[in-house]
Amino acid sequence: MANKRMFNIKIVDSDAFLDMPLSTQCLYFHLNMRADDDGFIGNPKKIMRMVGCSEDDLKLLIAKRFVLTFENGVIVIKHWKMHNCIQTDRYTPTVYIDEKNMLFIKQNKSYTLDEEKKYIPVSKTETKRNQNGNKMETNRIQSVYTDIDKDTDIDLDIDLDKENRDRVNYQQIADMYNATCVSFPRLTVLSEKRKKAIKARLRKYSVDDIQRAFEMAQESDFLKGTNGRNWSATFDWIMCDSNMAKILDGNYANKDNHRTEGRDDTGGQAGRDESLTEMAIRAGIGDSFEGF
Predict the structure, then answer these.
(1) Dist CA 144 CA 7 (whole Å)
(2) pTM for this one?
(3) Where are the beta strands (DSSP E) in the chain?
(4) DSSP state, 49?
(5) 110: closest CA among 80, 146, 75, 76?
(6) Average predicted confidence (pLDDT) for the chain
(7) pLDDT single digits (tens) 121-148
């Protein structure tokens, strides 16, 4: 196995990467350094503990799509082939053959689990090599930015439309919620009812849409409890179809001049309570905050 690793500056200098906490960035570098010559890591949690990072750092890399996951816990660096070009005499094939056969390669050399016809299976790729045994890129990397933090890959077990592939990566959605919605009750149990809600939402929304809904909910003061009812949203409430639609529509976005702030000369506290009620009705909460 090669002892040196390279990094593409367009990846690690992107806003999506630099917006992550330093501990998450650190974990990404360590995972890259310890990956095999195809970008696979079989012990990501061991590396995470060894370098003093938290599980949330690993979950954030997964949620942001800098690494792709498999059911057995193996991960792969999504942009591995953008980072590295390994000479033949130093290259050692990965031992994770089954996982490698699930991957496809996009035109910009990033890994994907999407089976679209325009992507080439990794198992069928042929790399040209010169007389010295060095890899020669068949296609230059043209568009890197469009593949960072905006990935619409259909990850493992999220292809809901294909026969015999109707399973869902429920844990990925749970990890996204826990990593993003830090002001709401933490999700610890994936009940059958919650799995059913996740599966239903993924038929209508992409993983990126759900991540955006989580981010918008986290930014909403109203959903975090500033609503006069001592109530805050939960995972179950957010995953309700109508509620997610309202979140994405911006119904719960913070306003510059809330009528709910302070007291006025005529309404006093009663006016404030009335405004809160009207706000809840307009947002669609009404008298009930639960249910799918």
Answers:
(1) 13
(2) 0.47
(3) 40-41, 67-69, 75-77, 104-105, 111-112, 120-121, 128-129, 135-136
(4) H
(5) 80
(6) 78
(7) 776 664 444 444 444 443 434 444 445 5
